[in-house]
Design a protein that fits this description.
This protein is α+β, with helices and mostly antiparallel strands and 560 residues long. It has four domains: 131 residues, no CATH class; 146 residues, 2-Layer Sandwich (Beta-Lactamase), CATH 3.30.450; 66 residues, Helix Hairpins, CATH 1.10.287; 170 residues, Heat Shock Protein 90. It contains 13 helices and 13 strands. α10 packs across α13. The longest helix is centred in the middle third of the chain and has 65 residues. The N terminus and C terminus are likely disordered.
Length: 560
């Protein structure tokens, strides 16, 4: 029969249950003694063929009692076995009198052997208890170590730690208390079990006083029926050899107090210095976990500060030139118009005004992108969703942008019968505008740009609306595709060919994701790139994939 871990767990649970309830060993031993009388009597008793072996049978109940209930249980069952053996199986029967001296000697030797064997069984029981306790402590230390290595989330570490402490040391409850960041009050960060009202930090002044004492001295303190027991006094042992109702262990790393561990013991729990030494090890592990989380938080804040500095530096280096260029153009055109020594004709004056208008629009777009990026970085994008006609949106954006890119033909491929999308039209229009502008910058002169819209039901997603912008630019290398949406990132070698700040695609991604969608990229070096905005359609929408004649452009298969 194959070994089953569940069987070991059942036997271990039964073993521990009997250790907590010693009367089980006494009851089992006395029951076996009573059960042995009928079959041994039926076999002839003292005069039968089992007569000389009767004492051996009564050793079994004594061993069971010693193994389950300990030394006292073994002694009680041994005395009961001697009495039953004398009463039922030593002549004269049913009297306490022993007729033959050899039977009296056998009875004395049996009692001695039974007590000795019971003592050995008790020692084996104690060693088994110690082994189980060490195994559970090692398992708890392993769990703590794995939590420290693989997790920096206190919300996951602390509950698991309190549960492990409660199971390992058979506690009524265990809790980890942390001090409020902006005050001296304590609160329960994790709890396993039920804490009585008299030991609750929110309901007991005694507990508040103990916490203050532990926080000041850095020593363990016990609390029992309203009387505190300091660490040194407790370590010396109490007169009644019982634990306080609760213990409060300081969680320290060096001289720094990072928390307090509260342990609530079950009534009648005995003192055990060895268990306290093992508990000290777990307390140190809990303190390390709390300190590690604090250090990890400081590292995270420092990393955010470094990232903020990097973004500021990148913003200054990327935007300073783009801000100066339109300002310089506006300044040059306006200064030329204001010259009194030059007589400009109407055509020249109109050209200067158009330059000022174009540069002002460029500056306005740059400032708008900066504002959008700041809102995205701050998580302040709140879409104002409504039902929108995507076909009309595409047509409006293409009509507005075509004059800005006269060297490119912006073609539309909108599938008929597109459903309305529940989205923020301003956000999606801005995202589509940024994608078309990006395609216009990177596509060679004369290359078309195709804007496609279609409804589709991919197998791994719900029904979606896809807006794609495809160009015939240089494409994006596979190594750069994961970085293309990063803030201020620009493809290597593109700085001399195109203008821009590296914010456009970041804004596209932020606006689309704020509306519950995603942005996908398909690119082949030398053939071009296709960016697709995928927006969720209404739940329950059932639509077979629709494609227009030019939809192949979105997959980079250009017609010849």
């Amino acid at each position: 029969m194959a070994w089953n871990p569940r069987h070991s767990y059942i036997w271990l649970s039964a073993y521990e249950f009997s250790a907590r309830h010693r009367w089980i060993g006494i009851a089992a031993g006395l029951g076996l003694v009573a059960l042995l009388v009928p079959p041994l009597t039926q076999a002839g008793g003292y005069y039968g063929f089992l007569g000389p072996s009767i004492p051996l049978f009564f050793l079994v109940p004594m061993l069971v009692a010693s193994a389950l209930g300990g030394r006292i249980a073994g002694v009680i069952v041994s005395v009961a076995a001697v009495v039953v053996w004398d009463w039922f199986f030593i002549p004269p029967l049913h009297t306490p009198t022993i007729y033959y001296p050899r039977d009296l000697l056998a009875l004395i030797v049996f009692l001695f052997d039974a007590l000795l064997t019971g003592q050995l069984a008790t020692i084996a029981r104690q060693r088994a208890d110690d082994a189980i306790r060490r195994a559970r402590t090692s398992e708890a230390l392993y769990d703590v170590s794995m939590a420290l290595i693989g997790n920096h989330n206190l919300a996951a570490i602390l509950p698991a730690l309190t549960q492990r402490l409660r199971a390992t040391f058979d506690l009524q409850a265990s809790a980890i208390l942390l001090r409020d960041p902006h005050g001296s009050a304590w609160h329960t960060a994790a709890l396993s079990g039920s804490i009585p009202d008299g030991l609750n930090i929110n309901r007991s002044r005694d507990v508040a006083g103990v916490l203050s004492w532990v926080g000041t001295t850095g020593q363990m303190c016990g609390l029992n029926d309203g009387a505190s027991v300091a660490g040194a006094e407790y370590q010396a042992g109490s007169r009644d050899k019982s634990r306080p109702s609760a213990q409060f262990w300081p969680l320290r790393v060096g001289d720094r107090l990072v928390g307090i561990l509260e342990l609530i013991y079950k009534p009648g729990t005995d003192l055990d210095p060895q268990r306290d030494r093992l508990l000290t090890t777990l307390v140190n592990g809990a303190a390390i976990a709390l300190e590690q989380e604090r250090l990890f938080g400081e590292e995270r804040e420092a990393m955010l500060a470094r990232e903020s500095d990097r973004l500021k530096s990148a913003l200054l280096s990327s935007v300073s030139h783009d801000l100066r260029t339109p300002l310089a153009g506006i300044k040059a055109a306006s200064s030329s118009l204001l010259q009194d020594d030059v007589q400009w004709n109407e055509e020249d004056r109109r050209a200067f005004v158009m330059d000022i208008d174009a540069e002002a629009d460029r500056l306005s777009r740059l400032v708008s992108n900066l504002l959008d990026l700041s809102r995205i970085e701050a998580g302040a994008i709140k879409p104002a969703r409504d039902w929108e006609d995507i076909a009309e949106l595409v047509e409006r954006v293409v009509r507005r942008l075509q004059p800005r890119f006269p060297e490119h033909q912006i073609a539309m491929d909108v599938a008929p019968g597109l459903p309305h999308a529940y989205t923020d039209v301003v956000h999606i229009e801005q995202a589509l505008t940024n994608l078309i502008e990006n395609a216009g910058k990177y596509s060679p002169g004369g290359a078309p740009i195709v804007v496609a819209a279609q409804a589709t039901s991919p197998p791994d997603h719900a029904a979606e609306l896809h807006l794609s912008v495809a160009d015939r630019g240089p494409g994006i290398a596979p190594a750069e595709r994961d970085k293309i949406f990063d803030t201020f990132y620009r493809i290597a070698g593109s700085g001399g060919r195109t203008g821009g700040t590296g914010m456009g695609l970041t804004i596209v991604k932020g606006l689309v994701e704020a509306n519950g969608g995603r942005v996908e990229l398909a690119s082949e070096p030398g053939k071009g790139s296709s960016f697709t905005i995928a927006l969720p359609l209404a739940e329950g929408y059932d639509h077979k994939e629709t494609r227009g004649e030019g939809a192949a452009a979105a997959s980079l298969e250009w017609p010849s």
